[in-house]
Specification:
Number of domains: 1
Distance between the termini: 34 Å
Number of helices: 2
Strand order of the largest sheet: 5-4-3-2-6
Shape: globular
Strand content: 35-45%
Largest sheet: 5 strands, antiparallel
Helix content: under 10%
Number of strands: 18
Radius of gyration: 17 Å
Amino acid sequence: MAFKLWPFGADLPLLKTPEWEHKHIGELYTGRLQLRRETEAGGPLLLKRVDLEPVYRYDPQTRTLSAVTDKEWLNAGGPIARCLDQLAKPGGVRIRVDHGTHKLLVAEREVSTAASIALSSLTSPSGNWVAVLSATGPIIPPITLLNGDRILGRRYHEVKSLPDAVSAHSSIQIPVVNTVSTLELCWSADEKFVVYNDVEFSSLVVVATNLNSRDQ
């Protein structure tokens, strides 16, 4: 069964993951996702939560997601991308989002983003690229200290080269999943895909980077 929703205005579908939604085991939410291609040469992208089954299989041709058994993950030949390792590995160039100014800083130099509000970024496994998520806004301050800012508007994904921070391609509008919490990012090991998932694991977005092998 495939799970796909195409929100108005987005360039990519929102892919629902009902088998994962709200199913948390233990206290660690971040970095539970792992990715691998079906073969070393490519093929579908498999997505696994380290704490439960089932696995999801993303078909790049139809842009659909379907639940499969853990056996498909075990039989796959592509290298495994561990998202927690990517989050923990900063890379050779210091990259961060200043959450006070909502600007992207590369080696402490301000870099423009597709939309005016930088939300998050993640360096690729090779260290040659950085995926960036930004929003058009506006920002709605919280009513109480217990709540975070709400960030409205459209969401844009882009990939920039490192260390010069030049955009590799035009930005892509992705669906808005949550206006309060920021989506988590993860690169596939071959750097052909970036996956955005919400912290509740209710849905995700898969972006093809269209980076040529010679660029990597």
